[in-house]
């Protein structure tokens, strides 16, 4: 990261200057560690293909997408919030179900390039708002959503941002509403991926192994006790549904 001398003569870390990112207000961790996946224009062109994301999820793309969709149902009413854009057709399918249920869908992302890419993918006249915001400080009202989805976002965030994102999700969901997290988890001991995948994740996704070590539920305030969990692919992936 660049360094500069600040007003009082101290060496201060400054945000990295990434000429191709169209928004340098994005968090450092995103521009430093994930520019190649989300911020670079070529990244969007390269990664947003079914076979690539399916490869990254080791052949589980459809299964995990459908796990998320099934949890919310075929016709989704009320207000739904998805924290962060995702590659693939999950959001388009979610939007179809929201249309079927007469609901509304809001998608938050900090990178304009990701929101533009999603806008291009969504069917015309979808009841979807694309909101440029940071998931760690949502400019959204308390208790205004019936459900919130966090799909493979938390493993990309450093611990403090991950905790703030989860708390924001719980703040904006209504009492009785659901926050669903789908993400990586620690594979069971007998799963060979536990040993093969660890160095790869450590290299490419510097915060992902936190989800191997820490239970997401530990990041929640103690009053949240209604937590349902499921594991997939030998424990490699997890779904957690927290009911507020
Ligand atoms: C949801 S995650 C990973 C998705 C997964 N790799 C996929 O495509 O299926 C990627 C998105 O999170 C967004 N993102 C990361 N940190 C964010 C933050 N603090 N606020 C808003 N968006 C964020 C990135 O801009 C990117 O569009």
Describe the structure.
- It is built from 10 helices and 9 strands.
- The strands form 2 sheets. A 7-stranded mixed beta sheet has the order 5-4-3-6-7-9-8. The chain has a two-stranded antiparallel ribbon with strand order 1-2.
- The chain has one domain (47-243): Rossmann fold (3-Layer(aba) Sandwich).
- It is globular.
- With 244 residues, the chain is an alpha/beta fold.
- Bound molecules: S-adenosylmethionine.
- The site of S-adenosylmethionine has 23 residues, from β4.
List keywords for this structure.
seven-stranded mixed β-sheet; alpha/beta; 244 residues; 10 helices; binds S-adenosylmethionine; Rossmann fold
Topology:
Layout: E1 3-5, E2 11-13, H1 28-33, H2 35-39, H3 41-47, H4 50-56, H5 61-72, E3 79-83, H6 90-101, E4 104-109, H7 112-121, E5 128-132, E6 145-151, H8 159-172, E7 173-184, H9 193-204, H10 210-213, E8 227-232, E9 237-243
Parallel strand pairs: 3-4, 3-6, 4-5, 6-7
Antiparallel strand pairs: 1-2, 7-9, 8-9
Query: At the first level of CATH, what is the class?
Result: Alpha Beta
Low-confidence stretches: 1-15
Radius of gyration: 18 Å
Q: State the distance separating the first and last CA atoms.
A: 39 Å
Helix content: 25-40%
Ligands in the model, by name, code or SMILES, are: S-adenosylmethionine
Spatial strand sequence of the major β-sheet: 5-4-3-6-7-9-8
Average pLDDT metric: 89
Shape field: globular
In quaternary terms, these chains amount to single chain
The class by helix and strand makeup works out as alpha/beta
- Number of contiguous helices: 10
Q: Report the CATH superfamily.
A: Vaccinia Virus protein VP39
What is the total tally of β strands? 9
Q: How much of the sequence is in beta strands?
A: 15-25%
Largest sheet: 7 strands, mixed
Q: How many distinct domains?
A: 1
């Amino acid at each position: 990261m660049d360094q500069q001398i600040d007003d009082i003569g101290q060496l201060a870390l400054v945000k990295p200057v990434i000429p191709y990112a169209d928004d340098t207000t994005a968090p450092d961790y995103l521009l430093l560690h994930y520019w190649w996946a989300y911020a670079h224009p070529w990244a969007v062109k390269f990664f947003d293909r079914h076979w690539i994301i399916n490869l990254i999820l080791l052949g589980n793309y459809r299964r995990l997408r459908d796990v998320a969709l099934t949890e919310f149902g075929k016709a989704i009413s009320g207000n739904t919030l998805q924290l962060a854009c995702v590659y693939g057709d999950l959001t388009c399918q979610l939007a179809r179900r929201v249309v079927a249920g007469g609901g509304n869908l809001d998608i938050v992302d900090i990178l304009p390039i990701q929101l533009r890419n999603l806008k291009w993918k969504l069917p015309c006249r979808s009841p979807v708002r694309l909101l440029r915001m940071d998931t760690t400080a949502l400019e959204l009202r308390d208790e205004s959503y019936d459900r919130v989805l966090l799909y493979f976002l938390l493993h990309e965030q450093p611990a403090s941002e991950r905790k703030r994102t989860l708390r924001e999700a719980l703040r904006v969901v209504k009492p009785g509403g659901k926050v669903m997290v789908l993400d990586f988890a620690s594979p069971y001991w007998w799963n060979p991926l536990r040993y093969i995948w660890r160095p790869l994740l450590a290299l490419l996704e510097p915060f992902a192994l936190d989800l191997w070590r820490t239970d997401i539920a530990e990041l929640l305030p103690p009053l949240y006790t209604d937590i349902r969990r499921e594991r997939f692919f030998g424990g490699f992936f997890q779904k957690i549904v927290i009911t507020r």
